[in-house]
Amino acid sequence: SVNKLDMLHSGALTKAASGKVVRKPKSTGTDGLAGKIVCSGGMPLIFVGTEVAPWSKTGGLGDVLGGLPPALAARGHRVMTIAPRYDQYKDGWDTCVLIQIRVGDQIETVRYFHCYKR
């Protein structure tokens, strides 16, 4: 039997006479883009993690957040990475933006710093 996920992967949705949702297979045109998501101009992407190489790295997460965002930016996406500031970094500057957030039953003040990398 075909489940709903299989129907979603098989083509465009149409309603059958019985009222059930059925998928029609898409015809693959000459562009070869059937079933693919295409973004013109790139997507805005935000990565949030506890470590980012080369500033803070203890394992694989730091490597991923140090390498993946620049690779996606090179492909035309607008990328931002957010991580805690554990130390004084020479290339990070204070944006003078302060916000207060609730963490459990406490209010914490957060200061934003910025580092622009190409």
UniProtKB/TrEMBL annotation:
It comes from the Eukaryota. Keywords: Glycosyltransferase, Starch biosynthesis, Transferase. InterPro entries: Starch_synth_cat_dom (IPR013534). The keyword Glycosyltransferase applies. Residues 46-115 form the Starch synthase catalytic domain. It holds the Pfam family Glyco_transf_5. This is Granule-bound starch synthase. It comes from Melastoma sanguineum x Melastoma dendrisetosum.
